[in-house]
Structure formats: C-alpha cells, structure tokens
Amino acid sequence: MKHHLTLLFGILVLAVGTFAEPLPPLRIASNQRFFVDGQERPIFILGDTAWALVMRLKREEITAYLEHRRSQGFNAIAVVIYAPANTEIVHSSLNAYGHAPFATVDGHLDPLQPLVTPGADPASRSEYDYWDHVDFAVAETKRLGFYLFLLPCWGNEVVRVINPTSPNARDVGLRPLSNPDNARAYGRWLGKRYAHARHVAWMMGGDRSAVDAKTGTDFRPAFRAMAAGLMQEAPEALLSYHPQKSGLQSGDWFHNDDWLAFNSIQLWPDAQVGKITRDWNAKPTKPTWLFEGRYEGYWKGGYKPEQWGEWQIRQQAWQTVLAGAFGHVYGHERIFAFGATGSNWRSFLDTPGASSMTHLAAFMRKLDSRVALSRVPAPELIVGPAGHAERLKSDLLVASRTPDGRFAMVYSANGRTISLKLSLLAGTLSAAWFNPRNGLWHANVAESTDQTFFAHGIVAGPGAPDHDFDPPGEAGDGNDWVLVLSAGN
Prior knowledge:
By secondary structure, this protein is α+β, with helices and mostly antiparallel strands. It has 2 domains: 3-374, TIM Barrel (Alpha-Beta Barrel); 378-487, Immunoglobulin-like (Sandwich). It is 22% helix and 19% strand. It is built from 10 helices and 21 strands. Strands 12, 13, 14, 16, 17, 18, 19 and 21 form an 8-stranded antiparallel sheet that branches. The longest helix has 14 residues, at 130-143. The termini are far apart.
C-alpha cells in the first residue's frame, strides 16, 4: 500500500539515492548577464520544451529522448513535475506507470500529501512510485549532460480562487497551493528532496500570470512562498518565473525579489526583443532569455502548422540572443506533450527548426570566452530603421558587440542589407557571413565549416564612414544571415 508524507506536520523527505557525477553547477557570471561554470567559463543554454516528460514517458523513453537531443547540441530541457488532468499538457495526472503524485482525498489530489513508498526498484510496482520516476529523470538528465529547468507544478495549481464556503470548493482541491503556507510547504519538500541536484534550476509560475488580469487576485504571495520554501532547503538553487505569453512577464512581477536569479519571458515574436531589452536595462542587473516562444508546427489560434516553420523558429532565437539573452529554449508543438495529442513525438525530433537550433548553439559556444561574456546589445550600430519582427515575418536587424568595439555580429532576419556605423567600432575589421540555416560560413560563393572571411581591411573607429554589407542571395523570407566583424584577423 502507498504511504504518504504529510507536509503540514513538517515531515519532509525520504532519501532519494545517489545522483550521478554532476554537471558544473550553473552560476551567474560576475557581470550578472550570462551563465558560467565555476571557472567563469560561459555556458550557452540550448533547451527543449519537454513539459510532460516525467508524466508521459517511461524510463527507456526518457533516455532515448535525451540521447537524441544531446546529439543535436541541446544541453537543457524544461519539465513540469505534475499538471492537473485535462490541461494543455496532459489528460491525466497519472504517469506512464499509472502512479499518482499525491494522495487522493474525496476524489481529488492533495498536493500536500506526496505518495512515496519504501524502495525504488523500477521492476516492482509496489516500490517504484511517481517520485522515484521524477528522481530517475533528474538523475538521467545529469548523467547525459543536461541542465533541468524544473517547474514544481503547472500554474493553474496556484492561480485559482478558492471560496471555502462554496459547495463546489472541493472541485478545485483540498489544500490549494494558492495558499502561501501550502505553497511554502510544497516548496520545502521539493527543495529538500532535490537539494543536491545542482543541475536543476527551478521555474515558478507555470504559464500563468502572477496577478489575475480579470479579477485582480494577487497570487504573488503564493509564488514567493513556494520560492522561499525551495530556497530554505536548497539555498544555492537558481530560480525564475515562467509567465504567460501575453501581458506582464517575470521582470514585471518579481525583478526586485532576491529569489529571482534570472528573468524569463514568453511572448509573441513581435514583442520578444522589446521585453529582452527591458530586462537587460532593468536594475539590479539580472540575466534574461526567451524561456518559451512559439513552437515549431504551432497550429492554435487559426494558424497552420506549416506557417510556424524553421525560419520563424530561427528568428525568435537569433533575435533574442543577440538582443542580450543568455540562451534559448526551443519547442515543437508535437513533442512537449509526448503523445497526449495523439501524435508520434519521435517523428518530430529531426525537424528543420531543431536543426537550426543546433547551428545556433554551435556558433555561440565557439565564441571566444571574452566575447561571449562581454557582448552587449548594440542597436546604435544600425544605420536607419532596424525593421520589425512580426508573428510570421521579419525584416529586423539585431546587433551585438563587445564594449571595445573589436567584435560585432548582426542578424538580418530576411537577408536585407545591413548598414552599420563603423565609427562606433574599432580596429581594422574582417567580415564573415554565417549561414544559420546550415551552420556553414559563406565567402565568395564557397561554403566552409571553418570561419572564412569575405573581406579584410575594413577600417573602423572615429571618423570611419558608414558601411553597407549585402548578405548573399536576394532579400526575402527565409534568407536570414549573421554578419560577423572582428579585428585582428
């Protein structure tokens, strides 16, 4: 028979076993902009949205998925520990082995009574419980080289209004996490259980606004309490907040909270760069990124899956990264629920959009450490209108540079001419084109896996004239390019 631990009385955790040798724990760089390891070496995060992984997949499927993504250059995944039945993620709160995360009281799961059993033998149904399976996913991500951005629950477990006098109060649970005391207790339980999993970063929120836009109900006390509970048991953990795709974002709700280590946004492409810029300029300085954009194959709201293809995916990634994001999380509409919508998720692992992300990660990870950690957004370099990012199209130019002006890179979403103020850069520059579609360098028709320059001797610095750089091919949808300028080559 299952046994449960009642958090209300402070009984916090059973031992979870020994984890594999850890990845370098994620740290915030000294300039508070990027992620680094213990030697201040940059870590570029390329994540995949895998919300339902611990709920929908069995052990061997988790391993197969992670191995495939690792071969593509991904080094992080985003996962939710549990979501209520009939959400956008899952249809059932039971995992792939038929186990529930919590005790059921009067027909409803009680989030303050996690179901745990003695032992953890996966061959024994009486031993291998829901939390043993979460433990396996935590350990397996570490073993295979992944950082895990973990949501304690989907946001609608917190963002809900309870009227205890209503005859239907039990329809929304017995001890709702909208109550700060309950949220803190659940956070403590998780923090204790996974305190030594230093490759885990925690995401509050769960695709919900912290203040209900319609009712004005403020759920920030509950999210703050859950974060406080986690950090009480895991004080070195990094935390952020996963907001909805419209309206206010993590920085709007919690930027000044000490527990918020980095900002996260979820917005449509037309608003992404603006919000990254807002986060970049906010004080105190904190890293930021696009934690959830529009998915490849997105089909909701009247859109067709083919409209959200590889070009739309690349735009979001390159534009936000060059605008100052420390990494990027990709997602595919047919993967994150792992078959809950009836699709074969395995058949969507090798899509063009995912391949595009491989090239982005490879490019960013090959940057010199000095460049990678000192790069700053540089919209001032662009002569004339920077263009616009739209939901399905873009002609936006986004520039980044080092403070000394000896390195710059500019993303042209549709291959239109890039006009730059070279007076704001420095040295004698060489220029190269990087093709984000195939990961190759382009110079004078030829393509190469090694960086190849198409021009040298470009004089920059005070008094230098503006300069036009015309990307290969005709400007148009899908013809995006990255211009790289560097001195001393």
